[in-house]
Amino acid sequence: xxxxxxxxxxxxxxxxxxxxxxxxxxxxxxxxxxxxxxxRSMWDRWQSDAKIKVTxxxxxxxxxSIAAQGNVxxxxxxxxxxxxxxxxxxxxxxxxxxxxxKIQSKIKTLVPNGGCxxxxxxxxxxxxxxxxGASRNIILIITDGMDDCDGTICDVARQVQLSGIVxxxxxxxxGNEFRHSLDCAGKFxxxxxxxxxxxxxxxxxxxxxxxxxxxxNLFDEEGMLYETEVPIVFYDAQTKVAKYNMIYSIDSxxxxxxxxxxxxxxxxxxxxxxxxxxxxxxxxxxxKTNNLNITVEQGTLRIRREERRTTxxxxxxxxxxxxxxxxxLLNVQxxxxxxxxxxxxxxxxxxxxxxxxxxxxxxQKGAATELTIPLPGMLILEKPKTVTxxxxxxxxxxxxxxxxxxxxxxxxxxxxxxPGEYSVILKPQESAAYKSVKSKRFHIxxxxxxxxxxxxx
Length: 457
Hints:
15% helix, Rossmann fold, five-stranded antiparallel sheet, elongated, mainly beta, 3 domains, Immunoglobulin-like
């Protein structure tokens, strides 16, 4: 009956503090910053005219078409136009209401003159966006990528994305003569002909206004909605920086909540089951509600101590859990605690002395795996009263492995050890002679005390 009830319940997506676009999307202003290349090569002929002339004509018409958009603001920064041989850049028209005519007037006067400084212009662009007001910031670079472009634009673009100020950078590449790809700087669109120029700008503009809707459904191995609350983080796939977080959970609602995402971003997604389920470079359509359906097959793991009577106070050893064959820590579990893991093989280290290793523990679908470790025993070690240096070694099949060092200033030590064969090796600190080294073998029994005396008193 419980499964039937759960089967009717949908998830709730609780957007966390990194970003919560769902509530603010309708009131946000979209700010588009044009970064326009005005370097010398923009005089080169392309299609019907010089690149700069074609660009001026297309931009004037494009700006006319968006002038009436009430929730859109446009600004323009130009590079390569200041002086002959100059690599400077300047914000020619800042963000302000009703500035389309001002931008158009400036576009008409632009004369290509200097070199290409796309990286410098992009780095300066962060200061062009107003710090106040809810906005969705887009950068649109228009360039032919020909004149002395330095190679730092990839590094600059990453810093722009890491800033969190800009949602997406688009690069419209004029012609087919690019010496290098600008994919690293943002969403690169190569423009092979003049006819598609205006259409491409409008497509970018419409993309900047749209949203994507996503419903995440986690199912257990029986096809029922997943019962456990699970954190989910969405990263920008390009910068690897977290953009949204959420908590998957179930309550009494009968309709699924919908997460509102930015469709301009490709996402890496981590669903924090144990181990996490990851998706890479996921994009979501604006034309329909996207569904991400995930089946999580899991079992449980419990590690307990051997049940036998003892007067010893046994420590609560931490238990390190790793996915089989991996060095990455997955979870720190306590003795007697039950934890859920996805099906598969796991390596387990109990941090007793010496550590207790369990390799290839199989967690099966819908099953409870229970493991028992032995109780440790207590070593009471009596040493000479002189200052001595020493260590304890475990002995397995004749091989000695270091376990721990001893306190040189203590004549009596108590060490909690797992059952097995051991040897202690001591040397007086005032003597360097080989013959002064003392050793003694001893056996530790589970839950019992063992006394070992090494050397004279």
